[in-house]
Amino acid sequence: MSSNRIVVIGAGVTGLTTALLLSKNSANDVTVVAKHMPGDSDIEYASPWAGASYLPLGAKGSENAKYEKATWPALRDLAQHSPESGVHFQETTVQNRRKDQDTATGKWAAELTSPSPWFKDIMPDFRNLPSDQLPPGIDNAQRFTSVCINPAIYLPWLVTQCMKNGCVFKRASLTHIADAADAHHSGSKADVVVNCTGLGSRTLGGVADDQVHPIRGQIIMVRNDPGSMTSISGSDDGPEEVAYIFPRAAGGGTIIGGTYQKNNWDPLPDPNFANRIMQRALKLDPRLVKPGQGVEGLDIIRHGVGLRPGRTDGVRIEKDQVNGVKIVHNYGHGGFGYQTSWSCAEKAAGLVHDTLLQRDRAKL
């Protein structure tokens, strides 16, 4: 029986997770084609720059919330049973200021900072903090156990899991999505192409989705470890500036950020933003440094900028056909690619399966 030839374009967290799920079916022969691979640090390649964490952002009842809810069990199980994946449990505190509700960051984090979010029933140890435990200026806060992900470990781990299942990885820079059908490692034309190009879907021929846009995030990686994750709804520095602290697993450093700047393509760290990021992080969790040290106590590893692959109408996971090539799209995840990765990949893999069934029926 012939195998199903599948090409996945993109090696970010979305592409790698999709390839992994597809490769678990022994009938599938998967090639991952990407311009950037784990280990690269190009501005076009968003996944390495992520915090990364599981802090649900989808509004109650939304598709994003459904994706986030369905992905939590997979990330939880990795933290419990596969520490080599770079996923580990972290206590997290989320603080909210009502005055941020109309800002870009406040709207982005509205569900996360709600006193009664939908995820309160699935996250371990969820509890609202009593009013007498709230820092000055904070209107409500909650604490729960979540996970933090070290992309420097997790992305290569996904690659190795894919390779165990027979996936082949190829570097290539494609200008048109239909060309991917000719990139399968067998030398034969692919039966299905899965588009996981993120921000690249804006310019990729045959897709050219003008709803795709960058959401610029600036971060600093430091050696300091406060011992838990913390985030807040916004800041007084600007409507697109926020504060969060994510200690990564296995010596991966601590990520402090950040910004949420839509349609900003600037790839260079801004020193003014960097200074404000450090000041906000120390205010958010003084445990980052020893008493009295201030920002001088931050041991900086590097500054970075990532462009989150946003999409105006949200994630696109659907079937398509371009120049006779059967396509399944899975892109547009904005700043929540990791925390929806498994469920979005499952949906995309299901559409690939449906496409292959339709092909087989047509042959009968």
Automatic annotation (TrEMBL):
<feature type="binding site">
    <location>
        <position position="244"/>
    </location>
    <ligand>
        <name>D-dopa</name>
    </ligand>
</feature>
<keyword id="KW-0732">Signal</keyword>
<dbReference type="Pfam" id="PF01266">
    <property type="entry name" value="DAO"/>
</dbReference>
<dbReference type="InterPro" id="IPR023209">
    <property type="entry name" value="DAO"/>
</dbReference>
<dbReference type="GO" id="GO:0019478">
    <property type="term" value="P:D-amino acid catabolic process"/>
</dbReference>
<protein>
    <recommendedName>
        <fullName>FAD dependent oxidoreductase domain-containing protein</fullName>
    </recommendedName>
</protein>
<feature type="region of interest" description="Disordered">
    <location>
        <begin position="88"/>
        <end position="107"/>
    </location>
</feature>
<keyword id="KW-0274">FAD</keyword>
<dbReference type="InterPro" id="IPR006076">
    <property type="entry name" value="FAD-dep_OxRdtase"/>
</dbReference>
<keyword id="KW-0560">Oxidoreductase</keyword>
<keyword id="KW-0285">Flavoprotein</keyword>
<dbReference type="GO" id="GO:0003884">
    <property type="term" value="F:D-amino-acid oxidase activity"/>
</dbReference>
<comment type="similarity">
    <text>Belongs to the DAMOX/DASOX family.</text>
</comment>
<feature type="binding site">
    <location>
        <position position="308"/>
    </location>
    <ligand>
        <name>D-dopa</name>
    </ligand>
</feature>
<dbReference type="GO" id="GO:0071949">
    <property type="term" value="F:FAD binding"/>
</dbReference>
<feature type="binding site">
    <location>
        <position position="197"/>
    </location>
    <ligand>
        <name>FAD</name>
    </ligand>
</feature>
<feature type="signal peptide">
    <location>
        <begin position="1"/>
        <end position="19"/>
    </location>
</feature>
<dbReference type="GO" id="GO:0005737">
    <property type="term" value="C:cytoplasm"/>
</dbReference>
<feature type="binding site">
    <location>
        <position position="335"/>
    </location>
    <ligand>
        <name>D-dopa</name>
    </ligand>
</feature>
<feature type="domain" description="FAD dependent oxidoreductase">
    <location>
        <begin position="5"/>
        <end position="349"/>
    </location>
</feature>
